[in-house]
Amino acid sequence: MSRPTPPPLPPIGPRSFDSDVPNASRMYDYYLGGAMNFTADRELAERAKSVLACTPSLARLNRSFLRRAVNACLDEGIDQFLDLGSGIPTVGNVHEIVQRRNPDARVMYVDYDATAVMHAKKLLDGNENAAILHADIRDPDSVLSAPEVLGLLDFDRPMGLLMVGILLYVGDEYNPKGLVATYRDACAPGSLVPISVITLEHVSKYDPVTHKQMLDLISVYDDASEQINVFGETEFTTWFDGMRLLEPGVTVLPDWRPDGALESDNDSPAGLLGIGGLGKIVRGPVAEAPDA
Fold it and tell me: β-strands 160-164, 80-84: how paired?
Protein backbone atom coordinates (compact mmCIF):
# COMPACT_ATOMS: atom_id res chain seq x y z
CA MET A 1 0.00 0.00 0.00
CA SER A 2 1.31 3.42 -0.93
CA ARG A 3 1.86 5.87 1.87
CA PRO A 4 -0.41 8.95 2.03
CA THR A 5 1.02 11.95 0.23
CA PRO A 6 1.42 14.94 2.57
CA PRO A 7 1.53 18.53 1.29
CA PRO A 8 5.11 19.10 0.07
CA LEU A 9 7.36 21.34 2.12
CA PRO A 10 9.10 24.30 0.47
CA PRO A 11 12.42 23.24 -1.10
CA ILE A 12 15.55 23.89 0.90
CA GLY A 13 17.29 25.65 -1.95
CA PRO A 14 20.98 25.62 -2.93
CA ARG A 15 23.31 25.00 -0.03
CA SER A 16 26.48 26.91 0.74
CA PHE A 17 29.79 25.24 1.53
CA ASP A 18 30.18 23.76 5.03
CA SER A 19 32.99 21.31 5.71
CA ASP A 20 31.94 20.72 9.34
CA VAL A 21 28.60 19.04 8.61
CA PRO A 22 28.88 15.53 7.16
CA ASN A 23 27.55 15.74 3.63
CA ALA A 24 25.75 12.83 1.98
CA SER A 25 27.18 13.68 -1.45
CA ARG A 26 30.76 13.88 -0.15
CA MET A 27 30.26 10.63 1.80
CA TYR A 28 29.17 8.97 -1.45
CA ASP A 29 32.34 10.33 -3.05
CA TYR A 30 34.36 8.79 -0.23
CA TYR A 31 32.73 5.37 -0.67
CA LEU A 32 33.67 5.51 -4.36
CA GLY A 33 37.31 6.32 -3.57
CA GLY A 34 37.13 10.01 -4.42
CA ALA A 35 39.11 12.82 -2.80
CA MET A 36 36.44 15.55 -2.62
CA ASN A 37 35.53 14.95 1.02
CA PHE A 38 36.49 16.27 4.43
CA THR A 39 37.20 14.93 7.90
CA ALA A 40 33.57 15.16 9.03
CA ASP A 41 32.44 13.26 5.92
CA ARG A 42 35.04 10.53 6.32
CA GLU A 43 34.32 10.07 10.02
CA LEU A 44 30.59 9.59 9.49
CA ALA A 45 31.24 7.40 6.43
CA GLU A 46 33.44 5.16 8.57
CA ARG A 47 30.64 4.98 11.16
CA ALA A 48 28.33 3.96 8.35
CA LYS A 49 30.73 1.24 7.23
CA SER A 50 31.04 0.02 10.83
CA VAL A 51 27.30 -0.76 10.95
CA LEU A 52 26.93 -1.84 7.30
CA ALA A 53 30.23 -3.01 5.89
CA CYS A 54 28.84 -3.28 2.36
CA THR A 55 27.97 0.44 2.13
CA PRO A 56 30.75 1.10 -0.45
CA SER A 57 29.43 -1.85 -2.50
CA LEU A 58 25.98 -0.26 -2.49
CA ALA A 59 27.48 2.99 -3.80
CA ARG A 60 29.39 1.16 -6.54
CA LEU A 61 26.30 -0.82 -7.58
CA ASN A 62 24.34 2.39 -7.92
CA ARG A 63 27.12 3.97 -9.98
CA SER A 64 27.22 0.90 -12.20
CA PHE A 65 23.45 1.10 -12.71
CA LEU A 66 23.89 4.73 -13.76
CA ARG A 67 26.49 3.74 -16.37
CA ARG A 68 24.35 0.95 -17.80
CA ALA A 69 21.23 3.13 -17.84
CA VAL A 70 23.02 5.98 -19.62
CA ASN A 71 24.32 3.56 -22.23
CA ALA A 72 20.79 2.19 -22.65
CA CYS A 73 19.61 5.75 -23.32
CA LEU A 74 22.36 6.21 -25.90
CA ASP A 75 21.37 2.93 -27.54
CA GLU A 76 17.86 4.38 -27.94
CA GLY A 77 19.24 7.46 -29.71
CA ILE A 78 19.09 9.89 -26.79
CA ASP A 79 21.62 12.71 -27.19
CA GLN A 80 20.74 15.06 -24.29
CA PHE A 81 20.58 14.42 -20.56
CA LEU A 82 19.30 16.17 -17.44
CA ASP A 83 21.09 14.61 -14.44
CA LEU A 84 19.22 15.52 -11.25
CA GLY A 85 21.23 15.38 -8.03
CA SER A 86 24.40 14.57 -9.93
CA GLY A 87 26.70 14.85 -6.92
CA ILE A 88 30.44 15.35 -6.87
CA PRO A 89 32.23 14.49 -10.13
CA THR A 90 33.85 11.07 -9.89
CA VAL A 91 34.94 8.18 -12.08
CA GLY A 92 32.51 7.56 -14.92
CA ASN A 93 30.77 10.93 -15.05
CA VAL A 94 27.70 11.06 -17.26
CA HIS A 95 29.18 13.53 -19.75
CA GLU A 96 32.25 11.30 -20.12
CA ILE A 97 30.14 8.22 -20.85
CA VAL A 98 27.91 10.17 -23.22
CA GLN A 99 30.47 12.24 -25.11
CA ARG A 100 32.77 9.26 -25.58
CA ARG A 101 30.06 7.82 -27.82
CA ASN A 102 28.61 11.10 -29.11
CA PRO A 103 30.86 14.17 -28.77
CA ASP A 104 27.92 16.45 -29.62
CA ALA A 105 25.63 15.08 -26.91
CA ARG A 106 24.63 17.51 -24.18
CA VAL A 107 24.53 17.03 -20.42
CA MET A 108 23.08 19.37 -17.80
CA TYR A 109 23.90 18.45 -14.22
CA VAL A 110 21.86 19.78 -11.28
CA ASP A 111 22.98 19.72 -7.67
CA TYR A 112 22.35 21.89 -4.65
CA ASP A 113 25.67 21.15 -2.93
CA ALA A 114 28.27 23.87 -3.32
CA THR A 115 31.18 21.41 -3.31
CA ALA A 116 29.68 19.38 -6.16
CA VAL A 117 28.99 22.51 -8.19
CA MET A 118 32.44 23.99 -7.63
CA HIS A 119 34.30 20.86 -8.73
CA ALA A 120 31.95 20.19 -11.64
CA LYS A 121 32.53 23.69 -12.99
CA LYS A 122 36.27 23.10 -12.93
CA LEU A 123 35.90 19.74 -14.64
CA LEU A 124 33.56 21.11 -17.31
CA ASP A 125 35.55 24.24 -18.11
CA GLY A 126 35.82 24.45 -21.89
CA ASN A 127 33.15 21.82 -22.52
CA GLU A 128 30.43 23.68 -24.43
CA ASN A 129 28.05 20.74 -24.31
CA ALA A 130 28.00 20.16 -20.54
CA ALA A 131 27.23 22.40 -17.57
CA ILE A 132 25.97 22.33 -13.99
CA LEU A 133 23.17 24.26 -12.32
CA HIS A 134 23.36 25.08 -8.60
CA ALA A 135 19.77 24.35 -7.62
CA ASP A 136 17.57 22.14 -5.46
CA ILE A 137 15.83 19.39 -7.45
CA ARG A 138 12.95 19.67 -4.97
CA ASP A 139 12.17 22.99 -6.65
CA PRO A 140 11.40 21.74 -10.18
CA ASP A 141 10.02 25.08 -11.35
CA SER A 142 13.38 26.75 -10.71
CA VAL A 143 15.28 23.92 -12.38
CA LEU A 144 13.07 23.70 -15.44
CA SER A 145 12.96 27.47 -16.00
CA ALA A 146 16.67 28.12 -15.45
CA PRO A 147 18.28 29.86 -18.45
CA GLU A 148 21.26 27.50 -18.24
CA VAL A 149 18.98 24.49 -18.63
CA LEU A 150 16.83 25.97 -21.38
CA GLY A 151 19.91 27.15 -23.23
CA LEU A 152 21.49 23.70 -23.34
CA LEU A 153 18.55 21.27 -23.57
CA ASP A 154 15.63 21.09 -25.98
CA PHE A 155 12.52 19.94 -24.13
CA ASP A 156 10.69 19.40 -27.41
CA ARG A 157 12.94 16.41 -28.11
CA PRO A 158 13.44 13.22 -26.07
CA MET A 159 16.07 13.33 -23.37
CA GLY A 160 17.51 11.17 -20.65
CA LEU A 161 16.04 12.33 -17.34
CA LEU A 162 18.34 10.82 -14.71
CA MET A 163 17.18 10.37 -11.12
CA VAL A 164 19.72 7.78 -10.05
CA GLY A 165 20.44 7.49 -6.33
CA ILE A 166 18.99 10.91 -5.49
CA LEU A 167 15.38 10.31 -4.46
CA LEU A 168 16.48 8.14 -1.53
CA TYR A 169 17.35 11.50 0.07
CA VAL A 170 13.88 12.90 -0.65
CA GLY A 171 11.40 12.06 2.09
CA ASP A 172 7.63 11.86 1.92
CA GLU A 173 7.43 15.49 3.02
CA TYR A 174 8.74 16.47 -0.43
CA ASN A 175 6.50 14.04 -2.35
CA PRO A 176 9.08 12.15 -4.44
CA LYS A 177 6.42 10.61 -6.69
CA GLY A 178 5.07 14.10 -7.41
CA LEU A 179 8.57 15.32 -8.25
CA VAL A 180 9.02 12.49 -10.75
CA ALA A 181 5.68 13.38 -12.33
CA THR A 182 6.52 17.09 -12.59
CA TYR A 183 9.84 16.45 -14.33
CA ARG A 184 8.26 13.73 -16.48
CA ASP A 185 5.55 16.07 -17.70
CA ALA A 186 8.17 18.63 -18.75
CA CYS A 187 9.88 16.12 -21.06
CA ALA A 188 8.91 15.07 -24.57
CA PRO A 189 7.41 11.64 -25.25
CA GLY A 190 10.16 9.16 -25.95
CA SER A 191 12.30 10.48 -23.12
CA LEU A 192 13.89 7.84 -20.91
CA VAL A 193 13.86 8.04 -17.11
CA PRO A 194 16.22 5.85 -15.03
CA ILE A 195 15.48 5.92 -11.28
CA SER A 196 17.05 4.05 -8.37
CA VAL A 197 16.36 4.00 -4.63
CA ILE A 198 16.88 1.76 -1.61
CA THR A 199 14.35 -0.78 -0.34
CA LEU A 200 14.24 -3.04 2.71
CA GLU A 201 11.83 -5.56 1.20
CA HIS A 202 14.37 -8.09 -0.05
CA VAL A 203 16.70 -8.08 2.96
CA SER A 204 13.73 -8.31 5.33
CA LYS A 205 12.78 -11.57 3.59
CA TYR A 206 16.16 -13.11 2.85
CA ASP A 207 18.84 -11.47 5.01
CA PRO A 208 17.66 -10.37 8.49
CA VAL A 209 21.21 -9.50 9.57
CA THR A 210 21.67 -7.00 6.74
CA HIS A 211 18.14 -5.73 7.37
CA LYS A 212 19.10 -4.81 10.94
CA GLN A 213 22.38 -3.30 9.76
CA MET A 214 20.56 -1.20 7.17
CA LEU A 215 18.27 0.18 9.87
CA ASP A 216 21.39 1.11 11.84
CA LEU A 217 22.81 2.82 8.75
CA ILE A 218 19.66 4.90 8.41
CA SER A 219 20.19 6.05 12.00
CA VAL A 220 23.80 7.00 11.26
CA TYR A 221 22.58 9.30 8.50
CA ASP A 222 20.56 11.26 11.04
CA ASP A 223 23.85 13.12 11.56
CA ALA A 224 24.39 13.80 7.83
CA SER A 225 23.20 16.69 5.67
CA GLU A 226 20.55 14.44 4.16
CA GLN A 227 18.79 11.44 5.62
CA ILE A 228 18.17 8.10 3.92
CA ASN A 229 14.62 7.14 2.97
CA VAL A 230 13.59 3.64 1.91
CA PHE A 231 10.68 2.71 -0.34
CA GLY A 232 8.63 -0.36 -1.09
CA GLU A 233 8.98 -1.85 -4.56
CA THR A 234 5.26 -1.54 -5.31
CA GLU A 235 5.26 2.11 -4.33
CA PHE A 236 8.43 2.75 -6.31
CA THR A 237 6.91 1.17 -9.41
CA THR A 238 4.05 3.70 -9.31
CA TRP A 239 6.61 6.45 -9.86
CA PHE A 240 6.77 5.21 -13.45
CA ASP A 241 3.13 6.14 -14.09
CA GLY A 242 2.85 7.70 -17.54
CA MET A 243 5.81 5.63 -18.73
CA ARG A 244 6.42 2.19 -20.15
CA LEU A 245 8.92 0.25 -18.09
CA LEU A 246 11.62 -1.15 -20.33
CA GLU A 247 12.96 -4.63 -19.69
CA PRO A 248 13.66 -6.04 -17.19
CA GLY A 249 11.29 -3.75 -15.26
CA VAL A 250 11.98 -2.83 -11.64
CA THR A 251 14.69 -5.10 -10.22
CA VAL A 252 17.52 -5.16 -7.73
CA LEU A 253 20.42 -3.29 -9.26
CA PRO A 254 22.66 -6.30 -10.09
CA ASP A 255 19.83 -7.81 -12.15
CA TRP A 256 19.20 -4.72 -14.26
CA ARG A 257 20.82 -5.57 -17.62
CA PRO A 258 23.97 -7.03 -16.03
CA ASP A 259 27.19 -6.78 -18.03
CA GLY A 260 29.54 -8.83 -15.86
CA ALA A 261 31.03 -5.87 -13.98
CA LEU A 262 31.33 -5.63 -10.18
CA GLU A 263 30.86 -9.35 -9.67
CA SER A 264 32.00 -9.25 -6.03
CA ASP A 265 29.64 -6.37 -5.27
CA ASN A 266 26.78 -8.11 -7.06
CA ASP A 267 27.14 -11.03 -4.66
CA SER A 268 27.40 -8.87 -1.54
CA PRO A 269 24.43 -8.15 0.75
CA ALA A 270 24.26 -4.74 -0.94
CA GLY A 271 22.86 -6.49 -4.00
CA LEU A 272 19.52 -6.84 -2.22
CA LEU A 273 19.23 -3.20 -1.17
CA GLY A 274 19.19 -1.06 -4.30
CA ILE A 275 16.37 -1.25 -6.85
CA GLY A 276 16.01 0.55 -10.14
CA GLY A 277 14.13 0.79 -13.38
CA LEU A 278 14.08 2.64 -16.69
CA GLY A 279 10.85 4.15 -17.95
CA LYS A 280 10.01 5.52 -21.40
CA ILE A 281 7.63 8.47 -21.34
CA VAL A 282 4.48 7.63 -23.31
CA ARG A 283 1.87 9.61 -21.33
CA GLY A 284 -0.87 7.80 -19.49
CA PRO A 285 -2.10 6.94 -16.01
CA VAL A 286 -0.09 3.81 -15.16
CA ALA A 287 3.23 2.13 -15.85
CA GLU A 288 2.84 -0.62 -18.41
CA ALA A 289 4.42 -4.05 -18.40
CA PRO A 290 8.13 -4.11 -19.30
CA ASP A 291 9.06 -4.44 -22.94
CA ALA A 292 10.28 -7.89 -23.87
Answer: parallel
Domains of the chain and CATH, by start: 62-281 (3.40.50.150)
| Model pTM score | 0.91
> pLDDT, tens digit, for every residue of 210-268?
999 999 999 999 999 899 999 999 999 999 999 999 999 999 999 999 998 877 788 89
Residue 33 exposed, middle or buried by CB count within 10 Å (0-12, 13-18, 19+): exposed
The neighbouring-strand residues paired with 80 are 106
Q: How far apart are CA 103 and CA 109, in angstroms?
A: 17
Q: Cα separations (Å) of 70 from 19, 67, 88, 100, 285?
A: 31, 5, 17, 12, 25
| pLDDT number for residue 1 | 42
Mapping DSSP to helix (H, G, I), strand (E, B) and coil, where does residue 80 land? strand
46-60, pLDDT tens digit by residue?
999 999 999 999 999
